[in-house]
From TrEMBL:
Main localization of the protein described in the UniProt heading: membrane
Superkingdom classification of source: Bacteria
Cellular location(s): Cell membrane
Domain called Type II secretion system protein GspF: residue spans: 149-278
The entry's keywords: Cell membrane, Membrane, Transmembrane, Transmembrane helix
Pfam families: T2SSF
Bilayer disposition of the protein: Multi-pass membrane protein
Protein name as annotated: Type II secretion system protein
Transmembrane segments: 33-50, 83-105, 111-131, 262-283
Amino acid sequence: MLILLVVELLVMVTLLARVYRSYSHFSKEYQSYLNPYWLAPLSLWLIDYFRITDRIPESISNVHHLMFGLHGSKVAVVRTKCFIVQILSFCLLIIVGSTLLGWVTETGAEMLAYGGGLMLFLPFLMYKNLASQLQKKKRQMLLDLPEMVNQIVLLVNAGESVQKALMRCIERNPNVMKSPLLSELAVVAYEISINASFTKSMEDFNKRCGVQEVSLFTTTLLLNYKRGGDELVMSLKELSFTLWEKRKAIAKTLGEEASSKMVFPMVFIFLVVMVVVAAPAILMMEQ
């Protein structure tokens, strides 16, 4: 097992030294997306040498779709590549780590088997984590959208134009970067401030969010903002009512999920209390 560990380390160090110059630029440029970044050149070389992206195009496409929803179209391709690099880097560390543990504990075959199983499940676990992040982002957007629509209705009723109302929603909110919806809307406000097309900015905003309710809000806004007045306000009020009902449903779902997560701790506490209460009685009976 020690010989196998030495061979693995020698192969990794040799390959890393050979390919470092060719792939170090990418790993340094996107260092914040890569962990561990020092193994990234070797993982990039493995991707190119074995043509991994060509062998599993459907899986790559699914990851790219998640990255598009999480980070937008501009960096989706890079984030997808970094995600694959991370998986390969972790797999390399698992190989070396399982071999090292097998040598230390003298259970080489078992630890290698455990390492192989972990390597098989690792891509699935990381993919599920991405899907969970995207779901949370969309859920947070749905929670923030009704409040934003209400603010726009109030500002338009007060005489503001739609563009200025959107910009005020961003200016008056101190937690813009903490909200995925408001952070995307901040991009729209910036584009409007540099005289970009309002229609084009809102369409891009809709694509970046990728949520059906946001698409409905964008469509309603674009269809009525030129007319303004009562038609726009009435359309937004109707939309606001629908969104608040959606928010209530999400809040109810979150409450049910929270209560279901408390079942196991409550059962565990109940068992502990039963043991504490019953143990003295059982000891007295034995005496």
